[in-house]
Amino acid sequence: MSISILGAGTVARTLATALSAKGHPILVGCRNLQSPNARALAALKNPGASLGSLQEAADSASLIILAINPWTEIERALSDLSPASLEGKTIVDLSNNIRFIDPPSLAFTDRSMGEYLQALLPKSHLVKTLNFLPAEMMVDPLTQGIDPAIMWLAGNHPEAKGRVGALLHDLGWKQIVDLGDMSQSRLQESMALIATRVVANILSTASKT
Ligand SMILES: NC(=O)c1ccc[n+]([C@@H]2O[C@H](COP(=O)([O-])OP(=O)(O)OC[C@H]3O[C@@H](n4cnc5c(N)ncnc54)[C@H](OP(=O)(O)O)[C@@H]3O)[C@@H](O)[C@H]2O)c1
């Protein structure tokens, strides 16, 4: 399974490091090979990870991890790519569209980000997972104290979910639960919102004491 990552920030660094350590060659696609993010990724000297353009990364892989932020930029970044480079492929969606107002809320009330992205890419097979965790906790859950190491995913395409499940196993997740089709990503994104509200509440309380 050839794997690429679109975007070169925090999540891309974490997943490229973990997956290349597991023997997966990873091509990370970025919009500017000289950006601070691209330089930070290159400085990691992961033996199995290399950098290229977004189009090269999309062309080269059968499984593509979307790691573009903020969420409002994802549609723009995807629309710059040749549609054929995404068709029929498994696309991992880790995104959240949380508006950081008081209290934090989701940008869409009628659909999830997962459903929105699947509608943007009707010929691709999107799978939502890992979105509610901070990047560093997406990998090696047992060493982070997440035990039992259970992760879940949602998406419309059973084989794509199987491929992403195998990838999650490689990241250290021991049991993968299939929540159902992409409409179930509403649950996953609500969980991320809860986590954000809890952190915001804790930080606000701490700042008053
Ligand atoms: N960080 C976390 O802990 C965490 C947790 C859960 C979910 N997520 C999700 O994971 C995804 C990636 O987050 P992140 O924290 O890794 O983001 P990040 O560190 O801010 O990196 C974002 C990347 O997106 C690229 N980008 C932004 N706009 C772009 C555009 N129009 N075209 C091409 N590339 C563009 C940036 O390019 P430059 O390098 O050129 O700036 C950068 O490489 C997001 O969907 C986020 O919601 C993150």
How does this model look, in words?
With 209 residues, the chain is an alpha/beta fold. 37% of the residues lie in helices and 21% in strands. Strands 3-2-1-4-5-8-9-10 form an 8-stranded mixed sheet, with helices on both faces. A two-stranded antiparallel ribbon has the order 6-7. Strand 1, helix 1 (10-21) and strand 2 form a beta-alpha-beta unit. It is globular. It binds NADP nicotinamide-adenine-dinucleotide phosphate. NADP nicotinamide-adenine-dinucleotide phosphate binds at residues 7-12, 30-32, 35, 37, 54, 67-69, 71, 73, 76-77, 94-96, 131, 134-135.
Helices and strands in order:
Elements: E1 3-6, H1 10-21, E2 26-30, H2 36-43, E3 49-53, H3 54-60, E4 63-66, H4 74-79, E5 90-93, E6 98-99, E7 105-106, H5 113-120, E8 125-129, E9 150-155, H6 158-170, E10 175-180, H7 185-208
NADP nicotinamide-adenine-dinucleotide phosphate binds near residues 76 and 77.
Shape: globular
Uncertain residue ranges = none
* Strand order in the sheet with the most strands: 3-2-1-4-5-8-9-10
**Mean of pLDDT:** 96
The description of the largest β-sheet is: 8 strands, mixed
Q: What structural keywords apply?
A:
209 residues; alpha/beta; eight-stranded mixed beta sheet; two-stranded antiparallel ribbon; 10 strands; globular; binds NADP nicotinamide-adenine-dinucleotide phosphate
